[in-house]
Structures are given as C-alpha cells and as structure tokens.
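Researcher: Let's try something more involved. This one mixes different molecule types, so please make sure each is placed in the same coordinate frame as the others.
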Amino acid sequence: MTTGLWIVLDHVAALLSVAAWFAAGVTLALRRTRLAPAVLVAAVLVTLLRVGTVAMLAGRGWWFVQEKVLLGLPMLGAAAAGAVLLAGPRLLAARRGRGTGWSVSGVVSVFTAAYAALAGLVVTFLVGYPLTLSTALITISLVCAGALLTMRVVAPAAEETAGGGIPLVLGGRLISRRRFLGWSGGAAALTAAGAGTGLSFLPAEAVTVGGGAGRSSRAAVSVADLRGPGSPAPGGTVRRHVLTAKKATVRLASGGEIDAWTYNGEVPGPAISAIQGDLIEVRLRNDDIEGGVTLHWHGYDVPCGEDGVPGLTQLAVRPGEEFVHRFRADQVGTYWYHTHHASHVGVHRGLYGTLVVTPRHGQRADGPAAAEQLDLTLPVHTFDGTVVIPGRDGRTEHPAPPGTTVRLRLINTDSNPHRIVLAGTPFRVAAVDGRDLNQPDEVRDVGLRLPAGGRQDLVFRMPGTPVALVVDDDRDGGLRLRPHGDGPGEAGVGDTSALPELDLLRYGAPAARPFGARDADRHFTLVLDRGLAVVDGRPAYAQTVNGRGHPAIPDQLVAEGDIVRFTVVNRSLETHPWHLHGHPVLVLSRDGTPSTGSPLWLDTFDVRPGETWEVAFRATNPGIWMNHCHNLPHAEQGMMLRLRYDSVTTPFGGAHGESPGHGH
Ligand code: C2O
Ligand code: CU
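Model: All components are placed in one shared frame. Result:
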C-alpha cells in the first residue's frame, strides 16, 4: 500500500476516533446505560486502530507521524485510559443493575478523551511537521480547558439530581473540591497556553545551512552583476527577440476566444530557438500588464541575474519599462519561458512560450544521429478547462510520410500534471527536462506522466499507419500524425486509461553518476504540507514547507562547489511538482528505492502524496535561486523559498514590496 493511502487511512481512523469518543460522551451524559458501554468499547478499539495506522506510517518516515507520536497519540492515550478507569467501573456496575453508570468524573473524562482526539486531528491538519513546544503547550492547555469547562457544565447537573441516591453532603464536598481543581487547573492551562503563544512569537531562523559552514570568506557579489556574456561562442550567432507583454484577445485552435495576457499578442509567445553556442538576446517590454512582468527561463541554467525573478534577481518590468536578457545557449534541449511575476495568474493567462536549443552539427549528445525530419514543439496548456495542444498555429494534424523520423517536444505549461499516451507506434523518451537519457528503451502502450513545468521529448520513426498523441486519456483531443497526408481515416485510438505508467526511475541504461547521497556536503529536508502559516504577512491556510510559508521559510545556504542533497517529503494529499531554479537535480531515490535506469536529471519532479524523493546537485551556478512548487497557485499560497550561495547578495529584495512569483 502506498504511503499516500496510509495517510488517508490514518485521517479516516483519526476522524472515526473523534466521532466515537464524542458519541461515548453523549450517550454517557444521556445515561443510555445499555448503549454507552458499547460505544465506549468502540472508541477504545478505534483508538487502538489508530496506533496501528500511525505505526505503519512511522515505518514510512518520521516526518509523517512526528506530531502524532509525540503529542496526538500520547494525549489521546492518557485521556482514553483515564476515561476507561473513571467511567468503566460504574458502567459495568450499571450493567449488573446497580445505578445508571453515570458519574461526573466519567462524563468529563470521556469528553476529555474526545477533545484529545479532536485536538490531535486539528494539530495534524493545521500544524503538521515539525511539531513545536509551543504547539504542544497550546494544544494540551486547550484540552485541559475543555475538560474544566465540561466539568462546570456537568457538575451543577450532578448537584440538581444528587437527591436521587447520592448524599447531598457528599455532593457538596465534591463540588468544592471541583471548584479548587477548576481554579488551579484553569490557571495552569492559561499559563501553558500563554507560554506556548509566547514561544510561537520567537523569531524564526532566517537561514539553514544543511550541515555546512554558515559563512564564506569569498567577497560578496550582487546578483545584479551576475549577468550573461555579450557575445556568442565562436561560430555562433546572436538571436534577437523583442517580447512585448500585453493584453490581447486570442482565438484558440478549439474555436473559442480568450482574454489573454500575451507576449507579442500571441499565445504561446514567440517560439525562441537557437543552435548551441548562440547568444540569445531578448528585450522584454511591458505595454499594459499593470502588476508587471518578467521572463524566467524555466530549466535553463542562466546566470542568476538573467533568471527573471522579481524582487530577487531584478525588479518587475512595469508598463513602459524594459529589461534585456542575454545568455549563451549552451544547453541543448527543450525548455520554456514564463513570467515570474504573479505567475499563478500570468502564466495561466498566457505569459509563456517555448525555448528550444538544438546541437550545432546536427549531432546529439548521445551519438551522431541526424536531427529529426519532423520536429514539433508542443506546449500543453489549459484554457477555460480545455487542454490546448499545440498552441499558436492551431494545427492538431500533421502529415508525416512513413519512415519520417519524428521528435515531439512536450511541455507542460499548466500547474497540474498531464498524462500522455503516444498511440500507434513504439517510441523512445529521448530526453526529460531537456537532458538526454542514456540508452532509452523503445516502449509502447505506456502512459507518461508529465509534471507541471516538465518536458519530455518522444522520438520515433513514423509507421505506415496514423499516430495519435493523447492527453489525459481524451481520445478525441490531442494530436494526429497521418502517414498519407491530411486525408480521412481515423487513427482508431482505443481506451488508453488503463495503460501502465512508465517509471522513469527504471528507464534507460545506468551510467556513471558524478556523485551519490554520501558525497553531499549539505543536506536539506523539505516537508511539504498544508497548514496554518503566515504568507506574506497574513495568516492563511497555506501550502507549507517545514510548517512555514513564504517568505518565512529559512533560506537554504550553500557554497560554490558544494554537493547539495534534498530530501523532499510530501505529507499532503496533493501533488507538488518541485522545481529548483538554476540547476538540474540528479534523482537518487524515491521512497527509498534507488533510481536504477539512466541517470535522471530533472528541474521539475512530481512529489506525489506520501512520496519521499532524494535528489542532489552540484552548486556551480552562484546566485540566489527560487526553490518552489511549480503548481503556481501553491507557490502563491506559500510554497516557495530561496537557495542562496553564501557570497551572493541582492539589491532587489523587498524593493517595492515585491515578492518573487506573485504580485498584489
Ligand atoms: Cu517555471 Cu520558478 O519557475
Ligand atoms: Cu504544490
């Protein structure tokens, strides 16, 4: 069973235990002598079941259970034991016909167990990992306060009905002892809650060093000075583009019209291509996108000053302003660009385009294969709920004579993953995130998972029959290649939804890797979840990293040359496509199982619910880099942080109150 499923199961068990303990409390309070013992037993059993689900989750990783093991379960266990001891004997007696089973201590203790169960669940959903002393103190005091309040409600009821069998004197003594308990308990709960709240206001660490040194002797350099070269490599040319951001009404291939935000009035923006070694020079202008725009080169390891992150590597380009990017097209492969300002809105509305760099002598890195005869760049994007592929030219059918070599460059420009099936031909996944795989096997009848922001290049030789590219198992949409022109003749795509997913961690041939987990100079753990956190100064039900939201997540500090390892854990029930700027990461393992196929270098990897990924990279590109979830609304809701080289500073941080990735 997957960890994600165990997480769900544990939530269900936790919810059941809350329901069962409350039901036990209510039936007992209502003196349902027959029902109450049964419900109490059920509550105890569900509580034991939770011990089981938590134990299973613990086996998957401490991150999944820390708050449950250290706080939730002990608290519930203690309260449940108290409830059984205090309510049990009288209930047993009642079954034998002696009394009603009811007692103040019984009712209060059973309700306290219910509060403890509820508190544990709330802590899991609002706080998660890591548990802090402050959270523990506040939670325990709230449960105690709940118990005291319940006593205040139940005890007078005891007084009123005390005439029935219980001596008044005894009742009176009990009440006064309770009053004493109430005062001292209330004071203790208040003190603990106060201490907890106070602790939560302690300033957070601004930086984590991941086990490495905290400062360097290198001279400081500003990101503003980390710019690209002014000339191409020998033999290369300069590729000049002017991209003007503006609002425009755009007609979609599907027929509809959208009010888009565009580069040059087109969606996607102009396709930028280059040959390895060329210099790419793009002048970004802004006509009328009020909040501002930038250009971020997704997956392309440009010098940091070209990275296009407002408030970090530059200022956002406001209407009437411009910014010129220059960088060498040294990396071959499929990439894309998009605005990094208010990106959760801007990219969605159309501020993106493709970037493709091909080898200089028609040579691919893995051998002397000539460039493919049909080379299509296919950004997949959703407008108004409709998946649009490809974009601008609107063509979803292409002629491809049999024998043609074809490369389909898929780019996911959405915030959610897409499932891709290439029906009608065997093919190879030649490259992922722009980087060639080592000896990719020929596959067919498989589904490919394309993470948000990710790219995959599919290569094949055109057969004599039609080929269909199916997105999200929608057999009628997607793209068709026809061997004999544009004539009719359906590709006859079957149901693709049951095809197994290709696991890229076991695909292709292994090859020497430059480093492994043991070589890491620094190690950072990122636990992804939802929870209560401050995002940009406002409390929110945020998307969190280690319990915090942007910009309160500590910067990760690295030094040039370090090998840096990330452990990325997803405690939540949503997928998080993790994306580090400026560096590809080498996948080491997923859920503890090492990657055994071709070395896999990614810039965006999907961390699904319950998954744990280990990746590493070498810090060879000085700068301050965004490290975030590429589900852009998640990033907006707090799930982003910075990876900072120890010698690099920024003059743009906080300027104009800007925040990387989103606006106001
Ligand atoms: Cu494609 Cu920071 O993003
Ligand atoms: Cu996310």
